[in-house]
Amino acid sequence: MTDAELFAKLQEVDARVVQLPNCRPLAVEVPVGFLLAFMGKLKSRPDLRFIQLLDHLAMDWPEKNEFELVYQLYSIEHDLLLAVHTRISRESPYALTMSRLWPIAQYQEREVFDLFGILYEGHPDLRRLFLEDDWVGFPLRKDYKDYFMLEMPE
Amino acid sequence: MSLEIRTLSEIMNPPQTADSPLSTQEYFVNMGPQHPATHGVLRLVLKMDGETIREVIPVLGYIHRSIEKMAEYLHGRQIVHLTDRMDYLSALANNWAVSRAVETAMGVQTNPRIETIRTLICELQRVQSHQLWWGVLGLDLGALTSFFYGFRDREEITDILEETTGARLTMNYIQPGGLMFDLHPNFVPRVKAFIKYFRPKLDEYETLLSENVILQERLRNVGVLSAEDAIGYGATGPVLRASGIPLDLRKQQPYGVYDQVEFSVPVGTVGDCWDRYWIRIEEMRQSLGIIEQLIDNIPDGKFMEMKPAAKLKLPAGSFYLQIETARGSLGVFLQGTGEDIPHRCHFRSPNFNNLWSVTKTAVGGKIADLVAIVSTLDLVIPDVDR
Protein backbone atom coordinates (compact mmCIF):
# COMPACT_ATOMS: atom_id res chain seq x y z
CA MET A 1 0.00 0.00 0.00
CA THR A 2 1.44 3.37 -0.93
CA ASP A 3 1.36 6.38 1.34
CA ALA A 4 -1.40 8.01 -0.72
CA GLU A 5 -3.60 4.91 -0.50
CA LEU A 6 -3.04 4.66 3.23
CA PHE A 7 -3.84 8.32 3.71
CA ALA A 8 -7.09 7.92 1.74
CA LYS A 9 -8.03 5.05 4.07
CA LEU A 10 -7.25 7.18 7.12
CA GLN A 11 -9.49 9.93 5.80
CA GLU A 12 -12.29 7.38 5.61
CA VAL A 13 -11.69 6.66 9.30
CA ASP A 14 -11.69 10.32 10.28
CA ALA A 15 -11.92 13.23 7.87
CA ARG A 16 -10.02 15.55 10.20
CA VAL A 17 -6.60 13.93 9.68
CA VAL A 18 -3.91 16.11 8.12
CA GLN A 19 -0.82 14.75 6.41
CA LEU A 20 2.48 16.18 7.63
CA PRO A 21 4.99 17.05 4.90
CA ASN A 22 8.41 15.45 4.43
CA CYS A 23 8.06 12.62 6.93
CA ARG A 24 9.00 9.00 6.80
CA PRO A 25 6.97 6.87 7.40
CA LEU A 26 3.64 8.54 6.62
CA ALA A 27 2.79 10.95 9.44
CA VAL A 28 -0.67 12.35 10.12
CA GLU A 29 -1.87 14.85 12.64
CA VAL A 30 -5.10 14.44 14.58
CA PRO A 31 -6.67 16.93 17.01
CA VAL A 32 -6.09 15.65 20.54
CA GLY A 33 -9.80 15.46 21.34
CA PHE A 34 -10.41 12.76 18.72
CA LEU A 35 -7.17 10.89 19.27
CA LEU A 36 -8.41 8.00 21.41
CA ALA A 37 -11.38 7.22 19.16
CA PHE A 38 -9.16 7.49 16.08
CA MET A 39 -6.55 5.14 17.55
CA GLY A 40 -9.22 2.64 18.55
CA LYS A 41 -10.45 2.51 14.95
CA LEU A 42 -6.89 2.17 13.62
CA LYS A 43 -6.42 -0.84 15.83
CA SER A 44 -9.71 -2.57 15.13
CA ARG A 45 -10.43 -1.90 11.44
CA PRO A 46 -9.73 -5.11 9.50
CA ASP A 47 -8.06 -3.29 6.59
CA LEU A 48 -5.64 -1.45 8.91
CA ARG A 49 -5.12 -3.50 12.10
CA PHE A 50 -2.39 -1.39 13.71
CA ILE A 51 -2.01 -3.84 16.57
CA GLN A 52 1.51 -2.89 17.62
CA LEU A 53 2.43 0.39 19.27
CA LEU A 54 6.12 0.57 18.50
CA ASP A 55 6.96 3.82 20.16
CA HIS A 56 5.59 6.85 21.87
CA LEU A 57 7.47 10.08 22.37
CA ALA A 58 6.98 13.77 22.91
CA MET A 59 8.61 16.86 21.48
CA ASP A 60 8.83 20.28 23.04
CA TRP A 61 8.19 23.39 20.92
CA PRO A 62 8.61 26.32 23.33
CA GLU A 63 8.20 29.02 20.65
CA LYS A 64 4.81 27.56 19.62
CA ASN A 65 3.99 26.87 23.29
CA GLU A 66 3.11 23.28 22.44
CA PHE A 67 4.04 19.71 23.09
CA GLU A 68 3.83 17.34 20.16
CA LEU A 69 3.03 13.72 20.95
CA VAL A 70 4.02 11.04 18.45
CA TYR A 71 2.76 7.47 18.27
CA GLN A 72 4.54 5.04 15.95
CA LEU A 73 2.17 2.27 14.91
CA TYR A 74 2.82 -0.92 13.01
CA SER A 75 0.38 -3.28 11.34
CA ILE A 76 1.87 -6.78 11.28
CA GLU A 77 -0.90 -8.12 9.02
CA HIS A 78 -0.55 -5.49 6.29
CA ASP A 79 3.08 -4.44 6.93
CA LEU A 80 2.21 -0.76 7.38
CA LEU A 81 4.02 1.87 9.40
CA LEU A 82 2.25 5.03 10.51
CA ALA A 83 3.14 7.94 12.76
CA VAL A 84 0.25 9.71 14.46
CA HIS A 85 1.05 13.19 15.76
CA THR A 86 -1.02 15.37 18.02
CA ARG A 87 -0.45 18.69 19.74
CA ILE A 88 -1.29 19.74 23.28
CA SER A 89 -0.76 23.02 25.03
CA ARG A 90 2.30 23.57 27.14
CA GLU A 91 0.39 25.15 30.03
CA SER A 92 -1.98 22.25 30.63
CA PRO A 93 -0.16 19.19 29.27
CA TYR A 94 -3.00 16.69 29.56
CA ALA A 95 -3.50 13.73 27.24
CA LEU A 96 -5.53 10.54 27.41
CA THR A 97 -3.73 7.29 28.09
CA MET A 98 -3.55 4.66 25.34
CA SER A 99 -2.85 1.85 27.80
CA ARG A 100 -6.26 0.28 27.28
CA LEU A 101 -5.50 -0.25 23.60
CA TRP A 102 -1.86 -1.25 23.94
CA PRO A 103 -0.51 -2.36 27.36
CA ILE A 104 3.00 -1.18 26.44
CA ALA A 105 1.69 2.39 26.21
CA GLN A 106 1.55 2.42 30.00
CA TYR A 107 5.31 2.20 30.26
CA GLN A 108 6.12 4.40 27.29
CA GLU A 109 3.83 7.06 28.73
CA ARG A 110 5.59 6.79 32.07
CA GLU A 111 8.84 7.58 30.29
CA VAL A 112 7.28 10.61 28.60
CA PHE A 113 5.76 11.76 31.90
CA ASP A 114 9.13 11.41 33.58
CA LEU A 115 11.04 13.42 31.00
CA PHE A 116 8.40 15.88 29.72
CA GLY A 117 5.77 16.07 32.44
CA ILE A 118 2.86 15.13 30.20
CA LEU A 119 -0.05 14.08 32.41
CA TYR A 120 -1.94 11.06 31.12
CA GLU A 121 -5.51 10.92 32.30
CA GLY A 122 -6.71 7.45 33.23
CA HIS A 123 -3.20 6.05 33.50
CA PRO A 124 -3.18 3.11 35.95
CA ASP A 125 0.23 3.79 37.47
CA LEU A 126 1.63 7.23 36.73
CA ARG A 127 5.06 7.33 38.35
CA ARG A 128 8.55 8.53 37.50
CA LEU A 129 10.38 5.90 35.48
CA PHE A 130 14.08 6.76 35.21
CA LEU A 131 14.45 9.58 37.71
CA GLU A 132 13.84 9.52 41.42
CA ASP A 133 10.37 10.17 42.76
CA ASP A 134 11.41 13.49 44.33
CA TRP A 135 13.15 14.87 41.23
CA VAL A 136 12.15 18.44 40.40
CA GLY A 137 11.54 19.39 36.78
CA PHE A 138 11.32 17.53 33.50
CA PRO A 139 14.75 17.21 31.86
CA LEU A 140 13.83 16.86 28.19
CA ARG A 141 11.90 20.12 28.12
CA LYS A 142 13.88 22.72 26.25
CA ASP A 143 13.81 25.18 29.16
CA TYR A 144 15.07 22.69 31.76
CA LYS A 145 17.85 24.07 33.94
CA ASP A 146 20.02 22.26 36.44
CA TYR A 147 22.93 23.44 38.52
CA PHE A 148 25.51 21.43 36.58
CA MET A 149 24.41 22.63 33.15
CA LEU A 150 26.88 25.10 31.73
CA GLU A 151 25.91 28.28 29.96
CA MET A 152 27.36 28.76 26.49
CA PRO A 153 29.90 31.62 26.65
CA GLU A 154 28.98 34.71 24.61
CA MET B 1 -10.86 9.96 34.84
CA SER B 2 -8.37 9.95 37.64
CA LEU B 3 -4.95 11.48 37.71
CA GLU B 4 -2.70 10.56 40.57
CA ILE B 5 1.08 10.62 40.55
CA ARG B 6 2.40 7.79 42.64
CA THR B 7 5.76 6.87 44.13
CA LEU B 8 7.48 3.55 44.60
CA SER B 9 7.51 3.86 48.39
CA GLU B 10 3.73 4.15 48.40
CA ILE B 11 3.48 0.83 46.60
CA MET B 12 6.05 -0.92 48.78
CA ASN B 13 4.56 0.39 52.05
CA PRO B 14 0.81 -0.03 51.71
CA PRO B 15 -1.32 1.13 54.65
CA GLN B 16 -1.87 -1.56 57.26
CA THR B 17 -5.37 -2.88 57.23
CA ALA B 18 -7.12 -3.61 60.50
CA ASP B 19 -7.94 -7.24 59.85
CA SER B 20 -4.33 -8.27 59.23
CA PRO B 21 -2.23 -6.73 62.01
CA LEU B 22 0.68 -9.12 61.50
CA SER B 23 0.98 -8.63 57.74
CA THR B 24 2.84 -11.88 57.29
CA GLN B 25 1.29 -12.89 54.02
CA GLU B 26 2.93 -10.81 51.35
CA TYR B 27 6.31 -9.13 51.42
CA PHE B 28 8.66 -7.35 49.05
CA VAL B 29 12.05 -8.60 47.91
CA ASN B 30 14.51 -6.48 45.97
CA MET B 31 16.22 -8.35 43.17
CA GLY B 32 19.00 -6.07 42.03
CA PRO B 33 20.15 -3.47 41.17
CA GLN B 34 23.38 -5.32 41.92
CA HIS B 35 22.36 -8.88 41.19
CA PRO B 36 24.34 -11.16 38.89
CA ALA B 37 21.22 -12.59 37.23
CA THR B 38 19.82 -9.25 36.12
CA HIS B 39 22.72 -8.61 33.70
CA GLY B 40 23.42 -5.11 34.82
CA VAL B 41 21.75 -2.63 37.08
CA LEU B 42 18.13 -3.69 36.68
CA ARG B 43 16.14 -3.63 39.89
CA LEU B 44 13.10 -5.84 40.16
CA VAL B 45 10.89 -5.32 43.19
CA LEU B 46 9.10 -8.61 43.79
CA LYS B 47 5.89 -8.91 45.75
CA MET B 48 6.15 -12.39 47.18
CA ASP B 49 3.66 -14.72 48.76
CA GLY B 50 5.83 -17.39 50.29
CA GLU B 51 7.94 -18.49 47.34
CA THR B 52 5.46 -17.44 44.68
CA ILE B 53 5.77 -14.16 42.83
CA ARG B 54 2.60 -12.08 42.94
CA GLU B 55 3.84 -8.95 41.23
CA VAL B 56 7.01 -7.76 39.49
CA ILE B 57 7.79 -4.03 39.55
CA PRO B 58 10.82 -3.15 37.41
CA VAL B 59 12.59 -0.04 38.73
CA LEU B 60 14.77 1.60 36.12
CA GLY B 61 17.15 4.50 35.93
CA TYR B 62 20.29 3.21 37.63
CA ILE B 63 22.28 3.74 34.44
CA HIS B 64 20.28 6.55 32.84
CA ARG B 65 22.70 8.88 31.03
CA SER B 66 20.23 11.11 29.18
CA ILE B 67 21.58 10.17 25.77
CA GLU B 68 18.51 11.71 24.13
CA LYS B 69 19.21 15.08 25.74
CA MET B 70 22.86 14.94 24.72
CA ALA B 71 21.86 14.06 21.15
CA GLU B 72 19.95 17.35 20.90
CA TYR B 73 23.29 19.16 20.96
CA LEU B 74 25.18 16.94 18.50
CA HIS B 75 25.34 16.39 14.73
CA GLY B 76 24.27 13.13 13.13
CA ARG B 77 27.87 12.03 12.87
CA GLN B 78 28.47 12.67 16.56
CA ILE B 79 25.29 10.94 17.74
CA VAL B 80 26.70 7.71 16.34
CA HIS B 81 29.37 7.83 19.04
CA LEU B 82 26.76 7.74 21.79
CA THR B 83 24.82 4.79 20.42
CA ASP B 84 27.49 2.19 21.13
CA ARG B 85 26.97 2.93 24.82
CA MET B 86 23.29 1.97 24.64
CA ASP B 87 23.19 -1.63 23.52
CA TYR B 88 26.87 -2.42 23.72
CA LEU B 89 26.37 -5.94 22.35
CA SER B 90 24.86 -4.56 19.13
CA ALA B 91 26.97 -1.42 18.92
CA LEU B 92 27.39 -1.64 15.15
CA ALA B 93 23.68 -2.15 14.54
CA ASN B 94 22.99 0.92 16.68
CA ASN B 95 25.49 2.89 14.57
CA TRP B 96 23.72 1.68 11.48
CA ALA B 97 20.28 2.67 12.75
CA VAL B 98 21.35 6.28 13.32
CA SER B 99 23.21 6.36 10.01
CA ARG B 100 20.16 5.10 8.15
CA ALA B 101 17.94 7.72 9.76
CA VAL B 102 20.35 10.53 8.86
CA GLU B 103 20.87 9.18 5.33
CA THR B 104 17.14 8.88 4.71
CA ALA B 105 16.48 12.35 6.05
CA MET B 106 19.16 13.86 3.85
CA GLY B 107 18.63 11.60 0.83
CA VAL B 108 22.18 10.26 0.77
CA GLN B 109 22.83 7.20 -1.39
CA THR B 110 25.41 4.61 -0.43
CA ASN B 111 27.12 2.08 -2.67
CA PRO B 112 26.85 -1.73 -2.61
CA ARG B 113 30.24 -2.14 -0.94
CA ILE B 114 29.18 -0.07 2.05
CA GLU B 115 25.88 -1.92 2.40
CA THR B 116 27.54 -5.34 2.09
CA ILE B 117 30.16 -4.56 4.70
CA ARG B 118 27.49 -3.17 7.04
CA THR B 119 25.37 -6.30 6.68
CA LEU B 120 28.35 -8.58 7.11
CA ILE B 121 29.69 -6.89 10.20
CA CYS B 122 26.28 -6.64 11.86
CA GLU B 123 25.66 -10.34 11.32
CA LEU B 124 29.05 -11.08 12.87
CA GLN B 125 28.03 -9.05 15.86
CA ARG B 126 24.68 -10.81 16.07
CA VAL B 127 26.53 -14.12 16.40
CA GLN B 128 28.82 -12.55 18.98
CA SER B 129 25.90 -11.21 20.98
CA HIS B 130 24.09 -14.55 20.97
CA GLN B 131 27.29 -16.31 22.04
CA LEU B 132 27.50 -14.09 25.10
CA TRP B 133 23.81 -14.60 25.82
CA TRP B 134 24.24 -18.38 25.57
CA GLY B 135 27.18 -18.37 27.94
CA VAL B 136 25.46 -16.16 30.46
CA LEU B 137 22.22 -18.15 30.29
CA GLY B 138 24.11 -21.21 31.45
CA LEU B 139 25.72 -19.20 34.21
CA ASP B 140 22.38 -17.86 35.38
CA LEU B 141 20.96 -21.35 35.58
CA GLY B 142 24.01 -22.72 37.40
CA ALA B 143 26.09 -24.23 34.59
CA LEU B 144 29.47 -22.53 34.67
CA THR B 145 30.96 -24.40 31.69
CA SER B 146 28.85 -22.70 29.05
CA PHE B 147 30.14 -19.32 30.19
CA PHE B 148 33.71 -20.30 29.36
CA TYR B 149 32.68 -21.86 26.05
CA GLY B 150 30.68 -18.80 25.03
CA PHE B 151 33.44 -16.37 25.91
CA ARG B 152 36.14 -18.49 24.27
CA ASP B 153 34.34 -18.41 20.93
CA ARG B 154 33.22 -14.81 21.36
CA GLU B 155 36.88 -13.86 21.65
CA GLU B 156 37.46 -14.96 18.04
CA ILE B 157 34.88 -12.50 16.72
CA THR B 158 36.03 -9.77 19.08
CA ASP B 159 39.55 -10.10 17.67
CA ILE B 160 38.27 -9.90 14.09
CA LEU B 161 36.18 -6.82 14.83
CA GLU B 162 38.98 -5.23 16.84
CA GLU B 163 41.28 -5.35 13.80
CA THR B 164 38.75 -3.50 11.67
CA THR B 165 37.01 -1.17 14.10
CA GLY B 166 39.76 -0.60 16.63
CA ALA B 167 37.67 -1.41 19.69
CA ARG B 168 36.66 -4.56 21.48
CA LEU B 169 33.37 -3.52 23.06
CA THR B 170 32.13 -0.02 22.27
CA MET B 171 32.68 -0.14 18.54
CA ASN B 172 32.07 2.82 16.26
CA TYR B 173 32.45 1.92 12.64
CA ILE B 174 29.35 2.85 10.64
CA GLN B 175 28.64 6.51 10.12
CA PRO B 176 26.21 8.51 7.98
CA GLY B 177 27.34 8.24 4.36
CA GLY B 178 29.46 5.13 4.75
CA LEU B 179 32.02 3.64 7.07
CA MET B 180 34.75 5.23 9.12
CA PHE B 181 37.55 3.23 7.53
CA ASP B 182 37.94 0.37 5.10
CA LEU B 183 38.03 -3.30 6.06
CA HIS B 184 41.28 -4.65 7.46
CA PRO B 185 43.05 -6.89 4.88
CA ASN B 186 42.89 -9.81 7.34
CA PHE B 187 39.12 -9.55 7.69
CA VAL B 188 38.02 -11.91 4.91
CA PRO B 189 40.43 -14.80 5.63
CA ARG B 190 39.85 -14.57 9.37
CA VAL B 191 36.06 -14.60 9.02
CA LYS B 192 36.30 -17.65 6.78
CA ALA B 193 38.50 -19.38 9.33
CA PHE B 194 36.05 -18.44 12.07
CA ILE B 195 33.06 -19.97 10.27
CA LYS B 196 35.00 -23.18 9.76
CA TYR B 197 35.91 -23.13 13.47
CA PHE B 198 32.51 -22.18 14.85
CA ARG B 199 30.12 -24.47 12.95
CA PRO B 200 31.21 -27.63 14.83
CA LYS B 201 31.34 -25.61 18.06
CA LEU B 202 27.70 -24.68 17.63
CA ASP B 203 26.80 -28.36 17.46
CA GLU B 204 28.85 -28.82 20.60
CA TYR B 205 26.76 -26.10 22.29
CA GLU B 206 23.70 -28.14 21.53
CA THR B 207 25.09 -31.35 23.00
CA LEU B 208 26.46 -29.49 26.01
CA LEU B 209 23.46 -27.44 27.04
CA SER B 210 20.42 -27.92 24.80
CA GLU B 211 20.16 -31.64 25.36
CA ASN B 212 20.66 -31.31 29.09
CA VAL B 213 17.63 -32.53 31.03
CA ILE B 214 18.03 -29.96 33.80
CA LEU B 215 18.11 -27.09 31.31
CA GLN B 216 15.05 -28.43 29.51
CA GLU B 217 13.16 -28.71 32.80
CA ARG B 218 14.14 -25.18 33.75
CA LEU B 219 13.08 -23.66 30.42
CA ARG B 220 10.17 -25.65 29.01
CA ASN B 221 6.73 -24.18 29.78
CA VAL B 222 8.29 -21.48 31.94
CA GLY B 223 7.39 -17.86 31.31
CA VAL B 224 4.91 -18.55 28.54
CA LEU B 225 4.18 -15.36 26.60
CA SER B 226 1.17 -15.63 24.32
CA ALA B 227 1.27 -14.05 20.87
CA GLU B 228 -1.38 -11.52 21.86
CA ASP B 229 0.54 -10.41 24.95
CA ALA B 230 3.82 -10.31 23.04
CA ILE B 231 2.32 -7.84 20.55
CA GLY B 232 0.48 -5.85 23.21
CA TYR B 233 3.57 -5.52 25.37
CA GLY B 234 5.60 -4.33 22.40
CA ALA B 235 8.00 -7.26 22.23
CA THR B 236 10.12 -7.57 19.10
CA GLY B 237 12.96 -9.73 17.88
CA PRO B 238 13.48 -13.26 19.18
CA VAL B 239 11.00 -12.69 22.03
CA LEU B 240 8.18 -11.93 19.58
CA ARG B 241 9.20 -14.69 17.20
CA ALA B 242 9.25 -17.23 20.02
CA SER B 243 5.56 -16.46 20.54
CA GLY B 244 4.83 -17.50 16.97
CA ILE B 245 4.85 -14.20 15.05
CA PRO B 246 7.26 -14.49 12.12
CA LEU B 247 8.22 -10.82 12.16
CA ASP B 248 11.79 -10.05 11.22
CA LEU B 249 12.61 -6.64 9.77
CA ARG B 250 15.39 -8.19 7.73
CA LYS B 251 12.68 -10.05 5.78
CA GLN B 252 9.75 -7.68 6.20
CA GLN B 253 11.39 -4.37 5.33
CA PRO B 254 14.77 -5.39 3.93
CA TYR B 255 17.61 -2.95 4.36
CA GLY B 256 21.31 -3.37 3.60
CA VAL B 257 21.68 -6.38 1.31
CA TYR B 258 19.32 -8.68 3.21
CA ASP B 259 17.11 -8.91 0.11
CA GLN B 260 19.99 -10.55 -1.79
CA VAL B 261 20.82 -13.30 0.69
CA GLU B 262 18.91 -16.42 1.61
CA PHE B 263 18.07 -17.16 5.19
CA SER B 264 15.11 -18.37 7.15
CA VAL B 265 13.47 -16.91 10.23
CA PRO B 266 13.02 -19.41 13.06
CA VAL B 267 9.63 -19.13 14.76
CA GLY B 268 8.54 -20.65 18.05
CA THR B 269 5.23 -22.27 18.89
CA VAL B 270 4.70 -22.04 22.65
CA GLY B 271 6.39 -18.78 23.57
CA ASP B 272 8.17 -20.21 26.59
CA CYS B 273 11.78 -19.79 27.62
CA TRP B 274 12.77 -22.85 25.63
CA ASP B 275 11.46 -21.32 22.38
CA ARG B 276 13.41 -18.14 23.03
CA TYR B 277 16.49 -20.26 23.72
CA TRP B 278 16.11 -22.41 20.62
CA ILE B 279 15.44 -19.44 18.34
CA ARG B 280 18.68 -17.72 19.27
CA ILE B 281 20.69 -20.90 18.67
CA GLU B 282 19.05 -21.25 15.26
CA GLU B 283 19.62 -17.57 14.49
CA MET B 284 23.34 -18.09 14.98
CA ARG B 285 23.23 -20.79 12.26
CA GLN B 286 21.29 -18.49 9.92
CA SER B 287 23.70 -15.63 10.55
CA LEU B 288 26.65 -17.86 9.74
CA GLY B 289 24.87 -18.74 6.50
CA ILE B 290 24.42 -15.05 5.63
CA ILE B 291 28.08 -14.35 6.34
CA GLU B 292 29.12 -17.29 4.16
CA GLN B 293 27.06 -15.97 1.25
CA LEU B 294 28.48 -12.47 1.51
CA ILE B 295 32.11 -12.95 2.49
CA ASP B 296 33.28 -13.85 -1.05
CA ASN B 297 31.11 -11.24 -2.74
CA ILE B 298 32.16 -7.91 -1.25
CA PRO B 299 31.96 -5.51 -4.20
CA ASP B 300 34.67 -2.96 -4.89
CA GLY B 301 34.08 0.70 -4.32
CA LYS B 302 34.56 3.55 -1.94
CA PHE B 303 33.92 3.07 1.78
CA MET B 304 32.63 6.60 2.22
CA GLU B 305 30.21 8.47 -0.05
CA MET B 306 30.37 11.86 1.64
CA LYS B 307 33.21 14.21 2.41
CA PRO B 308 34.16 13.72 6.07
CA ALA B 309 33.82 17.43 6.78
CA ALA B 310 30.46 17.82 5.00
CA LYS B 311 27.77 19.33 7.22
CA LEU B 312 24.81 17.08 7.87
CA LYS B 313 21.83 19.37 7.58
CA LEU B 314 18.62 17.62 8.63
CA PRO B 315 15.62 18.89 6.64
CA ALA B 316 12.45 19.88 8.47
CA GLY B 317 10.35 16.78 9.08
CA SER B 318 10.23 13.69 11.25
CA PHE B 319 11.97 10.47 10.36
CA TYR B 320 11.61 7.10 12.03
CA LEU B 321 13.69 4.20 10.81
CA GLN B 322 14.08 0.74 12.23
CA ILE B 323 16.71 -1.91 12.18
CA GLU B 324 16.76 -5.47 13.48
CA THR B 325 19.44 -5.81 16.14
CA ALA B 326 20.20 -9.04 18.01
CA ARG B 327 17.41 -8.17 20.47
CA GLY B 328 14.65 -6.75 18.33
CA SER B 329 13.79 -3.70 16.34
CA LEU B 330 15.70 -0.58 17.22
CA GLY B 331 13.99 2.55 15.98
CA VAL B 332 15.58 5.96 15.64
CA PHE B 333 13.37 9.02 15.54
CA LEU B 334 14.86 12.28 14.30
CA GLN B 335 13.04 15.58 14.10
CA GLY B 336 14.90 17.99 11.88
CA THR B 337 14.37 21.73 11.61
CA GLY B 338 16.80 22.51 8.79
CA GLU B 339 19.79 22.78 11.12
CA ASP B 340 22.55 20.27 11.58
CA ILE B 341 21.50 19.27 15.10
CA PRO B 342 18.16 17.47 15.53
CA HIS B 343 15.37 19.17 17.43
CA ARG B 344 14.58 15.81 19.02
CA CYS B 345 16.31 12.46 18.84
CA HIS B 346 14.58 9.44 20.29
CA PHE B 347 15.61 5.81 20.42
CA ARG B 348 12.98 3.10 20.47
CA SER B 349 15.08 0.56 22.25
CA PRO B 350 14.18 -3.11 21.86
CA ASN B 351 15.20 -3.91 25.44
CA PHE B 352 12.96 -1.29 26.99
CA ASN B 353 9.95 -2.74 25.21
CA ASN B 354 10.91 -6.39 25.71
CA LEU B 355 11.38 -5.90 29.44
CA TRP B 356 7.76 -5.30 30.36
CA SER B 357 6.49 -8.73 29.37
CA VAL B 358 8.19 -9.94 32.55
CA THR B 359 5.46 -8.26 34.61
CA LYS B 360 3.04 -10.65 32.93
CA THR B 361 4.98 -13.89 32.54
CA ALA B 362 6.75 -14.10 35.90
CA VAL B 363 3.59 -13.73 37.99
CA GLY B 364 2.63 -17.01 39.65
CA GLY B 365 6.07 -18.53 39.19
CA LYS B 366 9.06 -18.90 41.49
CA ILE B 367 12.15 -16.71 41.72
CA ALA B 368 14.16 -19.40 39.94
CA ASP B 369 11.74 -19.12 37.02
CA LEU B 370 12.16 -15.36 36.98
CA VAL B 371 15.92 -15.82 36.58
CA ALA B 372 15.30 -18.02 33.54
CA ILE B 373 12.78 -15.54 32.10
CA VAL B 374 15.02 -12.50 32.50
CA SER B 375 17.91 -14.45 31.06
CA THR B 376 16.01 -15.55 27.95
CA LEU B 377 14.71 -12.03 27.37
CA ASP B 378 18.40 -11.18 26.85
CA LEU B 379 18.24 -7.68 28.28
CA VAL B 380 21.02 -5.14 28.05
CA ILE B 381 20.23 -2.63 30.77
CA PRO B 382 22.14 0.40 29.41
CA ASP B 383 19.81 0.19 26.42
CA VAL B 384 16.73 0.11 28.67
CA ASP B 385 17.78 3.24 30.52
CA ARG B 386 19.62 5.10 27.74
Structural account:
The complex is a heterodimer of chains A (154) and B (386). Chain A is of the alpha/beta class. Chain A has a single domain, classed as NADH:ubiquinone oxidoreductase Nqo5 subunit (Beta Polymerase, domain 2). Helix content of chain A is 21%, strand content 27%. Chain A is globular and about 50 Å long. Chain A starts with a helix and ends in a 33-residue tail after the last strand. Chain B is globular, with a radius of gyration of 22 Å. The model of chain B has no long low-confidence stretch (mean pLDDT 86). In chain B, helix 7 runs antiparallel to helix 12. The two termini of chain B are 32 Å apart. With 386 residues, chain B is α+β, with helices and mostly antiparallel strands. Chain B has 2 domains: 52 residues, no CATH class; 224 residues, Cytochrome-c3 Hydrogenase, chain B (Orthogonal Bundle). In chain B, a hairpin with a 7-residue loop joins strand 7 and strand 8. Classes of the chains: A alpha/beta (154), B alpha+beta (386). The interface between A and B is large, with 47 and 46 residues.
Task: Present the secondary structure layout.
The complex is a heterodimer of chains A (154) and B (386).
Chain A: H1 3-13, E1 18-19, E2 27-29, H2 35-44, E3 52-61, E4 66-75, E5 80-89, E6 94-96, H3 105-116, E7 119-121
Parallel strand pairs in A: 2-5, 6-7
Antiparallel strand pairs in A: 1-2, 3-4, 4-5
Chain B: H1 8-12, E1 26-31, E2 43-49, E3 52-59, H2 67-71, H3 76-83, H4 91-106, H5 112-140, H6 144-165, E4 174-175, E5 178-179, H7 187-210, H8 213-219, H9 227-232, H10 238-242, H11 249-252, H12 273-295, E6 317-324, E7 329-336, E8 344-348, H13 350-355, H14 358-361, H15 367-377, H16 381-385
Antiparallel strand pairs in B: 1-2, 2-3, 4-5, 6-7, 7-8
Helix pairs in contact in B: 3-4, 4-5, 5-6, 5-12, 5-15, 6-7, 7-12, 12-15
